[in-house]
Write a structure and sequence with these properties.
The chain has about 160 residues and is mainly α. Helix content is about 75%, strand content about 0%. The chain has a two-stranded antiparallel ribbon with strand order 1-2. A hairpin with a 2-residue loop joins strand 1 and strand 2.
């Protein structure tokens, strides 16, 4: 019951519901997000911002939490909420493309990795299941490694068309 009094849990749930809302909005009216910004579609820019946030801020968080342990509460909040917003951006992009493309390839693998990161992160942070936090944390770290590997392959695939 104490878990339900945690404002961070409610903030995370709100961002997840906003993610579901915008993803559903893309399904209902795809054209809302289909406009160009420069040479790329808006949803692609969202995905780039979200992916770059996770790719660069996660290692920074890892280093800072060890160098500044007295600021861990702030760092964890930045890590959680920043990555959830990044997941929102990536989800809108993924939903935009999944409804028009029959095969996603590395994009699907990348979304699954990010989704698994979010899921294991939430399970670990808010202890939502009665599973050992050591087990969940090791899954979270493993999915981070998978995220980086698939991200590199995804970028290479879309830059040089492997």
């Amino acid at each position: 019951m104490e878990r339900l009094r945690n404002p961070d849990l409610w903030g995370a749930l709100i961002i997840i519901f906003v993610t579901l809302f915008f993803s559903a909005l893309v399904v209902v009216n795809r054209s809302l997000f289909g406009f160009l910004v420069g040479s790329l579609q808006f949803t692609h820019w969202m995905s780039l911002i979200g992916g770059l946030w996770i790719a660069f801020v996660t290692p920074i968080y890892y280093v800072l939490k060890r160098r500044r342990p007295n600021r861990i509460k702030e760092l964890v909040r930045i890590h959680i909420f920043g990555n959830l917003v990044a997941f929102l951006f990536i989800s809108v992009h993924f939903t935009y493309w999944i409804i028009s493309v029959s095969f996603m390839g590395t994009g699907l693998a990348l979304f699954v990795a990010v989704f698994a990161l979010v899921l294991t992160g939430l399970l670990n942070r808010f202890n939502l299941m009665q599973i050992s936090t050591r087990y969940i944390r090791s899954l979270h770290v493993s999915m981070t490694t998978a995220f980086y590997l698939v991200l590199i392959i995804h970028i290479l695939n879309h830059t040089i068309r492997l």
